[in-house]
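Good morning,

Attaching, inline, the backbone tokens for the sequence recovery test we're adding to the shared suite. The designed sequence is right after.
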């Protein structure tokens, strides 16, 4: 085979693989059940208890919508605490004094 023919064949195979992946992803997205769960407005102790329950479930917790919500609440709580505790140390921020004068 000549090189241009091989390159054309490789491009066609790559296109077929990409289209197959796109169709598969679309089918999975359409056929999966709606897993929306309202965010929990609970005390941190209750969230910790649910996190422990999800942790004890093992891999089954990945398919549990309650565990997904609890993980999201825990992640939000973690980053909210960091946001309030971290001082602004960015030297380029407007609040930081400039060391150079123009």
């Amino acid at each position: 085979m000549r090189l241009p023919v091989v390159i054309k064949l490789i491009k066609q195979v790559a296109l077929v693989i990409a289209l197959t992946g796109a169709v598969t992803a679309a089918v999975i997205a359409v056929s999966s059940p709606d897993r929306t769960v309202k965010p929990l407005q609970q005390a941190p102790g209750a969230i910790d208890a649910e996190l422990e329950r999800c942790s004890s479930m093992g891999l089954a917790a990945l398919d549990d919508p309650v565990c997904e919500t609890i993980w999201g609440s825990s992640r939000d709580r973690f980053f909210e605490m960091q946001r309030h505790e971290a001082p602004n140390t960015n030297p380029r921020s407007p609040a930081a004094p400039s060391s150079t004068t123009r």
